[in-house]
Write a structure and sequence with these properties.
single chain, 558 residues, alpha/beta, Glucose Oxidase, domain 1, Enzyme I, Chain A, domain 2, TIM Barrel, eight-stranded parallel beta barrel, 22 helices, binds phosphoenolpyruvate, binds magnesium ion
Length: 558
């Protein structure tokens, strides 16, 4: 067995404890099993078992409440599916024993879900659980399940976890979950996050771990360490506890320890992301990726339809800021209704973002801006619009003037192209604000395609060349009296977020779950510390040195 295994971290936190490996389950009933000839009685027996399982799942849901109840109610509905009952009756009619008929009837559904892939394939474990429970009832075996008492919290390992098990688990008994199967949207992941239990899914080889072996599970990085030195494990658990306490204590608007305000905003892809943005205390939206709304559309969305997609976002942040990005079509976000003109050997260097609209398609841009202005009307949120992939002052001027004509007083640009950062002073004259897209800025600075994993070491925003360009853009905005946010992934890294603030960035926007961590990191350090970290990071030669140098000024951030 290796010293560590790696999966996908889906619920953050550190868990440490002995392994409890959930094995077996219910054996497959023999294919040759037949009943004694009374098909009607056998069908009734199967139906009663399915109903008993459904009622039991419902009861567990009622006890658990919340997300778990939703999951278990859905499972109970599957158990009561009339199509399933018909299939079982048919198989029993052909002589199969009830347990075997149930096994085969579920098999057909199972294959359908597995073949569908993605979210549906992740429901296969739920289906298997209902099947196993029903067969357990029919064959007089105990229900499959997890231990309900233990001397110390255990790391629960399974091929996959059934919602019925995790829903009623006593939080104090479980240090972490590790499963071989499942992805970020599996029920193990959803319920682990709801319970606040660290979890790693998709961890190949986990069920081969020997029961009782002590494991250190990192629900962020996805690493599962086997029998780490006791002192190291204790230190990791302690550091995680301190971090969690700091995160829980940091509430309210973003600010450094000495009161330097840094609005913390959410990146969203549509109204569906609002719940999470509000839950994590976003002060507004710093990047609304509107192209995500229209990825599968063959024709351009109409103005009214767009108003419908934008208005709930303005309504969700009364008095707050909502920055809507105009369509970033092309390269990694191709839109069927806005194909690039002609063949592009390098789409990332082709007609994408704002370039798509200045010569052709201007009406599409005008419709979008009009829809954004209309959506904000009657709400108290402040509408901001920004264009992606701007390279020159002329492009910035074109967009800002168009935005103003459409009644949008805050018309800014994204800084994603090195030329825009190098000549940020010229662009700051034209645009009302900047928002730095560090994902693309890193890609273009390092000439490293963000979709090519072979160059991933060059896609690191800690690289001093990228930090230099961020500093240039932030300084130019500051001189012009304009705001300069960051909305790329860099803003979600608590250490780098502090460095960005030290570089002169005035707001940070990120995927909502990162907000509490960034809020806590800022709250623990002064503006002067952030500035010192930024200076040291820029003096470094490598990304690793930049990070290490920043760490020295910003203790306590992982
Ligand atoms: C970026 O490039 O950093 C950015 C925020 O835009 P996107 O990731 O949508 O290209
Ligand atoms: Mg970008």
């Amino acid at each position: 067995m290796p010293a560590q295994l790696e999966g996908v971290g889906v619920s953050p936190g550190i868990g440490y404890g002995p392994a409890y490996v959930l094995t077996g389950g219910i054996p497959e009933p023999d294919g040759a099993d037949t009943h004694d000839g009374d098909a009607e009685a056998e069908t009734a027996r199967a139906a009663a078992a399915l109903e008993r399982v459904a009622a039991d799942l419902e009861g567990r849901g009622l006890t658990a409440g919340g997300d778990a109840q939703e999951v278990l109610t859905a499972q109970a509905m599957m158990a009561r599916d009339p199509g399933l009952a018909d299939r079982v009756a048919d198989l029993v009619g052909h002589g199969k024993a009830a347990a075997r008929a149930v096994f085969e009837a579920f098999g057909a559904y199972r294959e359908l879900l597995a073949a569908a892939g993605g979210y549906l394939a992740e429901r296969v474990a739920d289906l298997d659980d209902i099947r196993d429970r029903t067969i357990a009832v029919l064959t007089g075996r105990p229900m499959p399940g997890v231990p309900t008492s233990a001397a110390e919290p255990y790391v629960l390992i399974a091929r996959d976890l059934a919602p019925a098990d995790t829903a009623l688990l006593d939080r104090t008994l479980v240090a972490a979950f590790v499963t071989e199967y499942g992805g970020p949207t599996s029920h193990t992941a959803i319920l682990a996050r709801a319970m606040g239990v660290p979890a790693v899914v998709g961890c190949v080889g986990a069920t081969a771990i020997i029961a009782g072996e002590r494991l250190l599970v990192d629900g962020s990085s996805g690493l599962v360490r086997l029998s780490p030195p006791e002192a190291e494990a204790a230190a990791a658990v302690e550091a995680a506890r301190a971090r969690e306490a700091a995160v829980a204590a940091a509430v309210g608007p973003g600010t450094t320890k000495d009161g330097h305000a840094v609005p913390l905003l959410a990146n969203i892809g549509g109204p569906k992301d609002l719940e999470s943005a509000l839950k994590y205390g976003a002060e507004g939206v710093g990047l609304y990726r509107t192209e995500f709304l229209f990825l599968d559309r063959a024709d351009a969305p109409g103005e009214d339809e767009q108003v419908g997609q934008y208005r709930p976002v303005f309504e969700a942040f009364p008095g707050g800021r909502v920055v809507v990005r105009t369509l970033d079509a092309g390269a990694d976000k191709p839109l069927a209704f806005l194909p690039p003109p002609g063949d592009e050997p390098n789409p990332a260097l082709g007609v994408r973002g704002l370039r798509m609209f200045r010569i052709d398609n201007t009406a599409v841009m005008e419709t979008q801006l009009r829809a954004i202005a209309r959506a904000a009307e009657g709400t108290s949120a402040e509408p901001y619009v920004m264009a992606p992939m701007v390279s020159t002052a002329a492009e910035a001027a074109w967009f800002a003037q168009l935005g103003h004509r459409m009644g949008l007083a805050n018309s800014g640009i994204m800084i994603e192209v090195p030329a825009a950062a190098l000549r940020a002073r010229d662009l700051a004259v034209e645009a009302d604000f900047f928002s730095i897209g560090t994902n693309d800025l890193t890609q273009y600075t390092m000439a490293a395609d963000r979709q090519v994993s072979g160059v991933s070491s060059l896609q690191d925003p800690w690289l001093p060349a990228v930090l230099d360009l961020i500093a240039l853009a932030a300084a130019a905005a500051g001189e012009a009296g304009k705001g300069c946010g960051v909305c790329g992934e860099a803003a979600a890294d608590p250490l780098l977020a502090c460095v960005l603030v030290g570089l002169g960035v005035t707001s940070l926007s990120m995927g909502a779950p990162a907000l509490p961590w960034v809020r806590a990191a800022l709250a623990a350090h002064t503006y002067a510390q952030c500035q010192a970290a930024a200076t040291t990071a820029r003096q470094a030669v490598t990304a690793a040195e930049a990070k290490e140098g920043a760490h020295a000024h910003l203790p306590g951030i992982p």
